[in-house]
Amino acid sequence: MLDPDTLELVRNTTAAAFDKKAFDVTALDVSDLTSFTDAFVLCSTSSDRHLDAVADEIRRRLKSKRKPLHTEGSGGGQWVLIDFGDVIVHVFTEERRAYYNLEGLWGDAPRIETFSPEAETQEAPVEPPGEA
Fold first, then answer.
1. Residue 94: which of 48, 26, 57 has the closest Cα?
2. Where are the domains of the chain?
3. In this structure, is the dihedral angle defined by the CA atoms of residues 80, 111, 38 and 104, taken in order, positive or negative?
4. Which of 27, 38, 52, 78 could form a disulfide with 86 if both were Cys (CB 3.0 to 4.6 A apart)?
5. pTM: predicted TM-score of the whole model, two decimal places
6. Which residues, listed in sequence order, are joined to residue 92 by a DSSP beta bridge?
């Protein structure tokens, strides 16, 4: 179970990613699976330039609250890792994310519920009459 500060960091990170139009944004609770962090945030981008914009927005948005311990990579490498200690953010191009498949590697990790603009725009499924 994540502490409230970590959960807030995850939510702020995912909100920043969504604001810059990242997609397939996923947060995983890895606190019971590893000792080096509590959560991963993963998101996809459409290009190297888009990747840099998303990573920059995450750092900018959180700079007054949390400074990254370490940042690795750039858009040219198709993957940026931003390490906040209890949360590690992975910003990928689609191709690089599929190649590394971190969701598969950490498949036992429960997903963390976060705000999703896509979920807000989707209508709730309608059940056929007489079924409930």
1. 48
2. 4-112
3. negative
4. 38
5. 0.85
6. 44, 79
